[in-house]
Protein 1
Amino acid sequence: MNSHEIELLGDDKKDDFKIGNPGDIYEDEMKKKKMKKIILLIVFFVILLAVIICLILLLSPSKSPSKDTKDTECKIGQNEDCLSCEKGTKKCGSCNPNFRLENGKCQFIFSFEAIYSIVQRDEDIKLFNVESLADYTINKIQVDDEYLDNNTNYIKFDAFGEHKVRINIDLKKSTSLNKLFENINELISINFTSDFNTKGIESMDEMFSSSEELIYVNMSKLNTENVKSMKNMFYSCTQLSEIDLKNLNTKKVESIAGIFSNCNSLSNIDISNFDLENNKDMSNMFSQCHSLNSINFGKINTKNVLNMSNLFDSCYSLQTIDLSNFNTEKVEDMSNMFKNCEKLGEINVSNFKTNKVENMFGMFYRCVNITSLDLKSFNTSLVKNMNKMFEGLTLTSLDVSSFDTSNVISMWDMFSGMKQLQILDVSKFNVDYVRNMSGMFYNCLSLEKKLLLVILIQLMLKIFLVCFLVVNL
């Protein structure tokens, strides 16, 4: 084949071997490169985002399962609450002893929840006293969120500060909670539950006595239907500022003597729900409650009370008091009843029946703020002791003309220190049995001299007559 033929053949096939435009080829290449860059950038940012998310998850603090999650998951084991799982669910079907199933969760059954303030680590701390418990079993103790295996009333705390302690205790045949928390100075608050079975308890004497750091007590759910004695129950709980006693059953209680005595931080007490129908002793009930300014007695029943001595002794802050529902027909002792009630502006005892009272020693001693005192209803025929009865009062007049003193043995300092007293009639006083009258009118500076002279002459004559009769017997 010659060169001419070859040239012709090339012309015929030139479409098959056609070479593209260099400009178009370059543009296509650039588009492909640009697309690759975009894809690489997208991949890079996706990877970067994934890395950032992973770092955030790794660096963020791990969160423990919420209480709800923990409670709803059914986990069976030696240290778990659930005994069995509900079929087909993650909820508990039944619980271990000392736990109760509530809405698919096992809740710890505890007798009381208390807060203890710990200032010494790794030392045995007494949670409560067991000496008065005839028979008992400590089933389980929870400290903060940890359950303890020990079943004693002593535990060691590994950290300072306040710790929440829940205790499940079975009182079995015990009939007394006397001194249960006496002198437990780490105890600062306590809340009893209805699961604390105290139905068989008959005595709660000195139950919290001298627990000087105790601030709050809730007894509203405590069963006290068979309790007969609450003597000195909160005695000397000097920091106690709040007590919830609503629903407390006191129907069988025979003595509440000293129940709040020396509770210096209590400012208000509500015992309007107290049924004291069988109570015989109210002595020292509020004595030394220096901060107490309000008492709600409600419709208190005191018809069987025999002793009201020192009832409000040294209630320095008490300004008003409602005694209208007090029934005193059986009371035998009213000594120091209102002693040192320095801010009381009025003491209304006009409804008092005192026909069985034998002791009025210091009854109104240093009630310096009262401006009048109505004692016309007082029957003093059995009274033997009137020592210091009105000592230190700032009254200008006092009517005791109706007093029957035929059985009085002692009257020393009876009106002592009544510097402003000007009118006093004791001309009808029978002092036949009086053995001591020393200081009877000591420092009564304003009492009229003539009246005082008459009084002294009358008393001396009566004493002389008594001596004469005794000598000639």
Note: The chain has a mean pLDDT of 87.
Protein 2
Amino acid sequence: MAAPSVQVLLRVTEPFRRLREGMVRFAVHTTAAHLERHVSRTLQRWVQDLHRRVPRYALFPELVDRWGPQTLALLIRVLRAEGEEEKRMLREEVHEHAHRVAAQQLRSGFSLEEILQAMGLLRTSVNAVGGVPPRRAVRPGPHPPGH
């Protein structure tokens, strides 16, 4: 008796599952498009934060100029990936990129702590630029119609 009720439940919830999947796909693609439009602003914020928090990176501009754009481009590709094969290939590419970037930085004399801090600052910059724009302050008192 339990099997038919489970089948009914699955049939009833299927449209909601498809709706949820569609909404997630839309949100991910919207995020990718937003991030792509704001790559230069994201990188500018990251470089400023990086030079302020880990000043030694300013001595390696070619490393920073290569690492940031490559990482953001890869992130955008990951967000846009469709299909299991493409996602599998991108997982491998992300893994190789992370190893390559870490090795370059270790060879340049950066500590693991500095590398992790730089990565965290990049993530913070992506979140800050990719986030919801700040709300305008509302002044107390009467407001004109429509405001």
Note: Residues 2-37 form the longest helix (36 residues).
Protein 3
Amino acid sequence: MNDFRKKEVILGQIDFMLETAPEEFWSMYADSVVLLFRSFINFGINSEQVKESLNTIKEMWKIKKEEKRILTEISANIDSIDLDKTEDFILKLDALNTSTYNYYDSILGEIQTTCDTKENNRVIRPRKQTSTLITDDSYSIQAKELIKQKKMI
């Protein structure tokens, strides 16, 4: 694949991640807000369910903000970065997004079940915390390195 075509593919992936994929995020974010209110109504403001709902909302927001920053920087520098390394990085970032989505989906599922059953002791974050853009800065570092290492001309 020539560089022009590869650049189009990468920019298309970035576009998808920035504009199309966030529909899943906004849906999950809306569910989080609904569960926050349900937790508040069912268990009170100081409950673990409310705290977990708030943490989930804050973390998801920070993750999307960091993802947007990284992808925007890559997009802005696409003409001067190594396209093969960038393509690999985008694939890794997409896999991280899938893992992150599944992680938060399981947390929200626990909160949902807790609200449905009104069992006050159910909300527990999965023990093995999944790597995310806010818990693992290696993705941010890799993106900076991609941009810093200008393509050999």
Note: The longest helix spans residues 83-117.
Protein 4
Amino acid sequence: MKTILARHKWLVDCTVSEMIDTETNKRYYVAKICGYGGWYLANDNPQNICDEVKSIRTKILDGDEKIFLNPKYSRNNVYKQLW
């Protein structure tokens, strides 16, 4: 079962939900950046998450559409990293 621990608004136009899988005690983050949801981020350090969200936001605002095709941020890839 997954539980939301917190919602962070570290940056403008970005909301990061900190979640935990209660069966494995693994934390992960799901971000909504500039209105685009579903950015799965696996990292234990909140500062790294903030930097990664900032990088994604910059690419979106610069018009780099390749960021939407990056498999690094897919749900399946994050689950592979965590479990």
Note: The chain has two helices and four strands.
